[in-house]
Amino acid sequence: GSPDGYYLYEYDSFERIVKESYVDNRGSLVNVLIHEYNQANEKIKSELRDAKGKVQEILKYEYGNRTAMFTGLCLKCHYYDTDGNLLRYSEYWYDDLNRISSATFFNAARKMIYKHKYEYGDLTSLFYHD
Q1: Tens digit of pLDDT for each residue in 92-105?
Q2: Are 62 and 35 in contact, with CB atoms under 8 Å apart?
Q3: What is the pTM of this model?
């Protein structure tokens, strides 16, 4: 079958993706993802907008420091609706080689839904909590 659609990308002067437009196979705009970055080149916010430009969901990124438990960087992602209500939350831990070592996903009540563990870049275990 034919593909469902395709993405168009726009970059800033630092060659970072600042806009991702999803277009269906008829050429109609479906949605747009707008990205904002801080001065350290880290993505700090993304907004998902419909074809008319109305914000559907907001994603805020938080970067943590190294901890005793994990050797690498932690990235936290918070997903909000347009009223500012938390929808879901995720944490990604990276090792010193910038590979994901753990990914944990939470619902709005901050209850863990599932967790992935990685070793040497390969998924080694998956935990699901209901």
Answers
A1: 877 776 677 777 77
A2: no
A3: 0.68
Contact 7, 25 (CB under 8 A): no
Round to whole Å and give the CA distance between 36 and 2.
33
Q: How far is Cα 35 from Cα 130, in angstroms, rounded to an integer?
A: 32
CB 9 within 8 A of CB 19: yes
Query: Do 33 and 46 contact (CB within 8 A), yes or no?
Result: yes
For residue 101, count CB atoms less than 10 angstroms from its CB and return exposed for 0-12, middle for 13-18, buried for 19 or more. buried
- The residue type found at 103 is A
What's the CA gap between 112 and 114, in Å, rounded?
6
Type of residue at 125: S
